[in-house]
Design goal:
The structure is a single chain. The protein is mainly beta. The protein has no helices and 6 strands. The chain has a single domain, classed as Jelly Rolls (Sandwich). A 6-stranded antiparallel β-sheet has the order 1-6-2-5-3-4, with no helix packed on it.
Length: 110
């Protein structure tokens, strides 16, 4: 299957004195989507994570949304793909005094 469309969403976070965890959700019409999360840049020492923390999908185009949740930040996926995706939530987790510039790619396959 070829890639038929692409969107990139960029986001930023700063851990300040206590760390930071945040997310963005992108809602879509049901489609075969491959989603990928990654870093442009990370500054500061310690653990950090960017990933896909949650997505929704439909088994049939008019069916009910199903949820796939990856739980806490150590378990977030970097890449997911399947038919019928209706939303993707990208997450970022940073320790104190860390800064990160990140991206979330969405690829439509068809």
């Amino acid at each position: 299957m070829p890639i038929t469309g692409h969107q990139v969403h960029s986001f930023w976070g700063y851990g300040a004195d206590t760390g930071f965890t945040g997310s963005i959700t992108v809602n879509l019409s049901p489609a075969y989507i491959v989603a990928q999360a990654g870093y442009f840049e990370v500054d500061g020492d310690g653990l950090h994570r960017i990933g896909i923390k949650h997505y929704r999908y439909r088994l049939t185009p008019s069916g009910a949304d199903q949820d796939k949740d990856y739980g806490d930040w150590p378990s977030w996926a970097h890449t997911i793909g399947r038919d019928g995706i209706t939303s993707v939530t990208f997450g970022i987790a940073l320790g104190a005094h860390q800064e990160a510039h990140c991206y979330g790619n969405l690829f439509w396959w068809g």
